C-alpha cells in the first residue's frame, strides 16, 4: 500500500504540473539585479535508495522501496538565481543510508552526507519567458561534489543530476518536489569496490531520491523589465514634436502681434493691450523663463507703458495638477516677480508694476500652458 500511495502521489503531481497552461505572456528582457537579490534557502525530507557497486551479480530486487536498500533522509540548500533561467545551489543531504550486500542487509546501515554544487536551469523561464505570477517552475539541475560515510570514515567524489519542481505559494515561499540521482565512487557506502568488476551502473554507488520540501526566497525575489528603449525614443520624439508645434504657434502669434502693432492706430493698440494679456511660459517647478522668445511681446507692452506712462499688472500662475497648493502659490508669486524684473530691465519703473500670485490653476490645455505669467496694461 505504501508503494502504491507514493507512486500515485508522484503521478498526480506530474499530471497537475503538465496540465498547467503555458503562461500567455509576452517574452521580454529583464534587468540584472544586485548580488544580494534573488537568494533562497531550501529544506526538505526525502526517501533515498542505494544501489551499491558490491551487489553486482546478486540479482537483487531493484525496487527503491525495498527495506534493504531504502530509508529516510533530510536536506538543506542555499542558492542564488543570477538570471530568471540560471542559478547556483549548494546542497547538503544524507544522514541515513544502506550498504547493500544482500536482500536481508541486517544491521547494514550507513550514516553519510553528500555536499553538491548544482547548476539550476529554470526551463519555464527560459522557454516561456519570465512571469512573476507563474505557479509551476520546471528546473533541471546537474553538478558534483564530495561525500563522506561517517560510519566508516571514508570519502568519495561524485556527480549529481535531477529535476526540481517548484510550486509557488507566494512571492517568498514555494513547495518543492525533487527527484535526483547521486553517482559516487564505490566506497561511499563504506564498502570499497575491491574484487568486483567495474562495469556500467555497477561501477559506482548510486543514490536515487525523491524529496518534498520548501523554498524560502530571501529579500527581493523578482526581476524588473528592461526599459523599452524604442518606446522611450518614440515618447521623446513625440514630446519634441509637441514643443516644436508650440514654438511654431508662438512664433506665428508673435508675428501677428508685431504686424498688428505696426498697422493699428494708437487708440486701437491701447484697446488691444488692455484686453489681451501677453503670456510668458515656464517649465515644471521652475521660476526662470523657459524661452526668451516669449519676451518679444513683453517688450512691446513695456514700450507702450513707458511712452504712455501706463501701469502694468503681472499675474503668475502654476498648474494645479502638480505640487501642493502652498507650493503652487509660492511658485506663482516667484514667476510674477521674475517677469516684473524683466520689465524693470526694459526700462519700466517698478512703481508702475503690480504683481500677483494666483496659485495653481487648470484653465488651459495642455497642462503645461498653465505654468505662466501674464502682462497687461492696467485699466
Summarize the structure.
By secondary structure, this protein is α+β, with helices and mostly antiparallel strands.
Account of the protein in words:
- The protein is an alpha+beta fold.
- It has two domains: 35-218, Porin (Beta Barrel); 264-377, 60s Ribosomal Protein L30, Chain: A.
- It contains six helices and twelve strands.
- An eight-stranded antiparallel beta barrel has the order 1-2-3-4-5-6-7-8. It has a four-stranded mixed sheet with strand order 9-12-10-11.
- The longest helix is centred in the middle third of the chain and has 35 residues, at 229-263.
- It is rod-shaped and about 120 Å long.
- The termini are far apart.
- The relative contact order is 0.11.
Pick out its properties.
Porin; eight-stranded antiparallel beta barrel; 2 domains; single chain; 60s Ribosomal Protein L30, Chain: A; 379 residues; 6 helices; four-stranded mixed beta sheet; rod-shaped; 12 strands; alpha+beta
Amino acid at each position: 500500500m505504501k508503494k502504491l500511495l507514493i507512486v500515485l502521489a508522484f503521478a498526480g503531481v506530474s499530471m497537475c504540473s503538465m496540465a498547467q497552461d503555458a503562461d500567455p505572456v509576452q517574452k521580454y528582457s529583464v534587468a540584472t539585479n544586485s548580488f544580494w537579490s534573488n537568494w533562497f534557502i531550501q529544506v526538505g525530507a526525502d526517501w533515498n535508495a542505494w544501489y551499491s557497486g558490491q551487489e553486482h551479480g546478486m540479482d537483487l530486487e531493484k525496487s527503491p522501496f525495498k527495506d534493504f536498500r531504502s530509508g529516510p533522509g533530510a536536506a538543506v540548500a542555499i542558492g542564488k538565481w543570477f538570471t530568471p533561467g540560471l542559478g547556483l545551489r549548494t546542497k547538503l543531504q544524507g544522514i541515513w543510508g544502506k550498504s547493500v550486500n544482500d536482500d536481508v542487509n541486517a544491521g547494514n546501515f550507513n550514516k553519510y552526507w553528500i555536499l553538491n554544487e548544482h547548476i539550476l536551469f529554470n526551463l519555464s523561464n527560459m522557454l516561456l519567458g519570465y512571469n512573476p505570477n507563474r505557479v509551476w517552475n520546471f528546473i533541471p539541475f546537474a553538478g558534483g561534489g564530495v561525500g563522506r560515510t561517517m560510519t566508516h570514515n571514508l570519502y568519495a567524489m561524485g556527480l549529481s543530476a535531477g529535476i526540481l519542481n517548484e510550486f509557488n505559494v507566494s512571492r517568498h515561499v514555494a513547495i518543492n518536489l525533487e527527484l535526483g540521482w547521486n553517482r559516487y565512487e564505490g566506497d561511499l557506502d563504506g564498502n570499497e569496490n575491491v574484487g568486483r568488476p567495474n562495469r556500467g551502473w555497477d561501477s559506482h554507488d548510486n543514490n536515487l531520491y525523491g524529496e518534498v520540501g520548501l523554498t524560502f526566497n530571501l529579500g527581493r525575489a523578482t526581476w524588473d523589465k528592461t526599459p523599452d528603449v524604442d518606446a522611450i525614443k518614440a515618447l521623446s520624439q513625440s514630446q519634441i514634436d509637441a514643443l516644436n508645434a508650440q514654438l511654431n504657434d508662438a512664433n506665428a502669434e508673435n508675428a501677428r502681434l508685431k504686424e498688428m502693432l505696426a498697422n493699428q492706430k494708437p487708440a486701437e493698440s491701447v484697446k488691444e493691450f488692455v484686453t489681451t494679456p501677453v503670456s510668458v511660459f515656464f517649465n515644471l517647478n521652475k521660476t526662470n523663463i523657459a524661452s526668451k522668445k516669449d519676451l518679444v511681446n513683453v517688450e512691446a507692452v513695456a514700450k507702450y507703458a513707458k511712452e504712455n506712462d501706463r501701469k502694468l499688472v503681472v499675474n503668475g500662475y502654476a498648474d494645479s495638477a502638480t505640487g501642493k497648493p502652498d507650493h503652487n502659490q509660492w511658485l506663482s508669486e516667484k514667476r510674477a516677480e521674475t517677469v516684473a524684473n524683466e520689465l524693470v530691465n526694459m526700462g519700466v519703473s517698478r512703481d508702475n508694476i503690480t504683481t500677483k500670485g494666483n496659485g495653481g490653476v487648470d484653465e488651459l490645455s495642455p497642462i503645461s500652458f498653465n505654468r505662466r505669467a501674464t502682462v497687461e496694461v492696467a485699466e
